[in-house]
Amino acid sequence: MSSLRAPHSAFRDSLDRRRLMQLAAAGVAVGAQGGWFNRFAEAAAADPKRKRSCILLWMPGGPSQIDTFDPKPGEETGGPFKAIETAVPGIRIAEHLPLVAKQMKHLAVVRSMSTREGDHDRAAYLLRTGHLPQEPLQYPTLGSLVSKELGDAKAELPNYISVGGRRGLSDGGYSSGYLGPDYAPLLVGDSPDAPYTRRPGLRDLAVADIKPAVESSRANDRVKLLEGLNADFAPGREGTAIASIQSAYERGLRLVNGSASAAFHLDDEPEKLRSTYGKNPFGQGCLIARRLVERGVPFVEVTLSGGFMGSWDTHARNFDRVKTLCDILDPAWAALVADLKDRGLLDTTTIVWMGEFGRTPRINGNLGRDHYPNAWNVVLGGGGIKCGQVIGRTSKDGSTVEERPADVPDLLATICKAVGVDYEKQHLSNIGRPIRIVDKSAKPLTEVLS
Questions:
Q1: Could you say which DSSP state residue 160 is in?
Q2: N or C: where does the chain have the smaller number of CB atoms within 10 Å of the terminal CB?
């Protein structure tokens, strides 16, 4: 729930929605600048009617499972990294994730993912939609599906927000597909047109065109003019395209004119907390994700990528690059879990860490690891997840799954159940065919669900 529409009685009693809109239109700051907002956020988190949210930490390129959450110390395939103990006795992970290790009681590792696609774009599409790309069907990404089921069409903030996404090798599976543009993500940060060779900076963490280009009186006159033109144009031209344009414009106005855009103003946060997350696009993106779910956004994804050396596609110099990426990932992810816990939001927020596949146990001649969908891992945590455990097991060298294999439909069904979405529900596709949210072959990982 955004700060303009929260259904909490204490908030409604102090300042109703209409008055807030009037204040926002008049230019009065009604964001998270006063102490009252922290009290409101705490009340929002404690509301028993609060809907669940999901944060996807997306790792494009395919992280090496052996060098993160399924270490094989002493094996020829294990590489130079050590395994360290975690907060859960018996669970060990790679040494460059010490802060995440301390949060293991809030996480569950699935070490037995076994999929069938080793091409970046096709595998990313598969993991994000549950299907391989095929014409003429346009499958929606997971964020669009969740936002349709849990979102509020009248919210000031979009129901699906992607921070730093669509950058790198695995750009597939970002479309809202047959659900239509109402469920497409708001992109925060780098656009698809940003050069892959350039690393993003903190200045890139912004919502494009969120500030009005003209003074409010002129903007209001333009809105009235557009509404008049639409009133003359729309009759007799009803259809998806017209409805989508009108809906997109209305959502844009709500975001620009309301106080919800304060979610992206990180200067409101204590400097110490910002530093704990990490002063980099991924770390600050995770902080934005917390601020968004605090305001009721049902699906947020934060991408760790950008620039060739920032990709998890580690065909060369795997160990140097994994260490560099983990130095960014570790503090941000650990801070996110702790921050959500402190604010009473972890029980209603499911966290998913994954890429499109894993990396080969075999180390190649460039000290790298290649694409490997046969046996890899994902990590789940937070709300709806029975944490502090490992699901599945791989062989001694990490080449095969020996226990509890899981495919993409199984994973997506598990995520849906964790966030309270009926994964068997059907939507009508763009060609008039009913399609389940998750394929009928899905078998949720019941042992990881709380």
A1: E
A2: C
H/E run at residue 216: helix 216-233
Q: What share of the chain is helix, strand, coil (3-state, %, to 5)?
A: 40, 15, 45
Q: What is the C-alpha to C-alpha distance for residues 420 and 383, in angstroms, rounded to an integer?
A: 10
pLDDT per position as a tens digit, 1-30: 333 333 333 333 333 443 333 333 333 333
Give me the helices (H) in 86-215, please.
98-102, 120-129, 142-150
Q: At what angle do helices 408-419 and 120-129 cross, to 10 degrees?
A: 40
Q: How far apart are CA 3 and CA 261, in angstroms?
A: 10
302 and 282 Cβ atoms separated by less than 8 Å: yes
pLDDT digits (tens, 9 = 90+) for 192-240: 555 445 556 666 676 665 665 556 667 566 666 766 766 666 676 655 5
Rounded CA gap, 190 and 310, in Å?
Answer: 14
Buried b (16+ CB within 10 A) or exposed e, 170-183: bbbbbbbbbbbbbb
**118 contacts 357 by C-beta, under 8 angstroms:** yes
Residue 95 per-residue DSSP state: T
Q: Calculate the dihedral angle through the C-alpha atoms of 247, 251, 256, 258, rounding to the nearest 10 degrees.
A: 130
Would you call 315 exposed, middle or buried from its count of C-beta atoms within 10 A (0-12, 13-18, 19+)? middle
Judge contact between 71 and 94, C-beta under 8 A: yes
Cα–Cα distance between 5 and 18 in angstroms, integer?
Answer: 10
Name the most confidently modeled range: 39-43, 93-97, 160-164, 244-248: 93-97
Q: Torsions phi, psi of 309, nearest 5?
A: -75, -5
Query: Can you tell me the distance from the alpha carbon of 433 to that of 55, in angstroms, rounded to the nearest whole number?
Result: 29
Among candidate residues 335, 71, 286, the one with its CA nearest the CA of residue 163: 286
C-alpha to C-alpha distance for 302 and 59, rounded to whole angstroms: 9
* 303-340 pLDDT, tens digit each: 997 654 468 999 999 999 999 999 999 999 999 999 99
